[in-house]
Description:
Elements: H1 2-12, H2 17-24, H3 28-40, H4 53-63, H5 70-81, H6 84-92, H7 97-106, H8 114-124, E1 147-158, E2 165-175, E3 181-186, H9 191-205, E4 211-213, E5 221-223, E6 230-231, H10 233-242, E7 245-246, H11 258-261, H12 263-272, H13 280-293, H14 308-316, E8 331-337, E9 343-346, E10 349-352, E11 361-367, E12 370-375, E13 378-384, E14 389-391, H15 403-406, H16 409-419, H17 421-434, H18 439-447, H19 449-452, H20 454-467, H21 472-481
Parallel strand pairs: 1-4, 4-7, 10-14
Antiparallel strand pairs: 1-2, 2-3, 5-6, 8-11, 9-10, 11-12, 12-13
Helix pairs in contact: 1-4, 7-8, 16-17, 16-18, 17-18, 17-20, 20-21
Amino acid sequence: MTDFVEMFRHWHAGRSQVQIHQALGIDRKTIRKYLAPAVAQGLCPAPAEAFDEALWRQRIAGWFPELVDPCARALTWDRIDGHREWIDEQLKVPVTVATIAQRLRDDHGADVSESTVRRYIATTFADRGLEDKATVPRGAVDPGSEAQIDYGRMGMWTDPDTGKRVAVWMFAMILSCSRMLFVQPVLRMDQRSWNASHVAAFEFFGGVPARLVCDNLKTGVIRPDLYDPLINLAYGELAAFYGTLVDPARANKPKDKPRIERPMPYIRDSFFAGRQFGSLAQMQDEALRWATEVYGTHKHRGMDNALPNEVFAAVERDALAPLPRRGFEPVVYTLGVLGTDCHVRAGKAFYSAPWRLMGQKLTVRAAGDVVQIFHDGAVVATHVLHLSGRSTNFEHYPPQKVAHCLRTVTWCRTQAEQIGPAAVAVVAELSTVNAIHRLRSIQGIVGLRERYGAARLDAACARALAVGDPRYRTIKNILAAGAECDGQDSAESAVLPPALLRGPQAFGA
C-alpha cells in the first residue's frame, strides 16, 4: 500500500509515467495498469492541490482490495494453486512465467492475470530465481517490404514411429510490419528443407515480401559479405522465381533482424517446451495453429498493443507481391570434382561427365527427376535423378577405356555369327559356365578377326575345338603359327595334345 500511495503521490503532482518510472523504479506497464482506475473515474493530476493521503488510501483499497485484504488475494491464488503441480513441471522444463500464464488461461480456463501468476510463482517457488529477459525491437517498416528469417533449436523429441530421439529445429519467418509469424518444425536443416520452408511460408502468407533478411547459414548464404554476399545457388534461384531480394544480416549481428530474434525463445517456451507430439506432421499442423491462434492474437508492444492478425489483414496482406501461378520446383545444387572414374558425386549418387574434365570442379543441379552437370556455366552432361548408385553414359569415357563395358556377351555372339560356325561354337562353350567371368577371353577371340580375318579365325577355332582346348591363348598361338589348316585331313590330328599345335609332320623325319 505504501508503494501505491507513493506512486499516486507522484502522479497527483503531475509527473509523467517516465518520471515515475525513473524515480521509483516501477515498470511503466505496471504504472499504466494501476493508474487506469483513476483515469477511468475521471481523476486528473492536481499539482496545485494538497495530496490527501487518507483519501487516496481509501481509493486504492477500493480499486485493489487484495492490498489490504489477504482473503481477496487468496481467492485469486486459489484458482492458481489448483494447478501447482502442473506449474512446477512447467518450471522444470523450463517455461517462462508469461507462457505459464497464457496456458493457464487458454488450456486450463483459469481467469488470472500474468502479474498475479508472477507474484504467485515468486512467492510459492521463491527458490527458483526466475527472471525474464526483454528486448523490444523498435522502428516502423512499410507493409510488405520485409520479412526476417531464422532457425532455432527447439530441443529433443522422441519420434513415435522410430522410437529414436531426434533434434527438432524451428524455421521461423516474420513479417516486419504486422509481426505475422510463420513457424515450421523440421528435423533437417539442409538446402531442400530450407527452400521448402520458404515456399510453405509464402503460401501461408498468401504473398511474397519484397526483401528477405536471413541468417548466414550455408543453406542460404555461402559467403557473408556486407557489400557483396555470395548467395547459395538454390536459394538465389528461389528468390528469382518469387521476385524477392535476399539481403542477409551481417555475420554475428543479431540486431540486424531483431523482430525474429526475440520471438525464438518464446516459440520454444510457448509452443514446444513441455508438450508431446504424435508425428512430425501433427507438430507442423500444431505450429501453424499456434502461430495463428496464440501468437497472432497477443498484443504486441512494438505496435501499440495491436494484434498481428488484425494488422496483417488490415494493411499487409494486400501489400505482398502475388504468388506465381505455378509452384516452385525443388532444386538442389552440389559442388564436386570429377574423379578419375569420370563420375562426380551428388548426394548419395554418382553421375558421369566427359573424361576431359577430370579434376575440374563441376556444379550439379538436381530439379525434379533431371540432373544437369555444369562446367563454366555450360551444361556438359544430363542424367535421370538417382537416389543412390551410379548413372553412367559410356560416351563420357575415353574410347580405349569403354571396350569392356560396351562389348557385352550378346555383342560377342553376334560377331561370332559373322565369323563362322566354329567361332560360334567356341563362344557358346566359353559362355556355358560363366559368361561374365570369361567375357575378356571371348572379347579377345572375337577381336582376333581384325588382325587375321574371319576365315582364318574360324579355322583356328575349329582346330582348337578339335584338340579340346578352345581358349584365347590356344587360338592365338594357332593363328600366330599359321597352323589353323595343318593336318585337317589327318585323323590323328584330332587327338594331338594342345602343346603339339603344329603336328609332328612340321618337324620332318
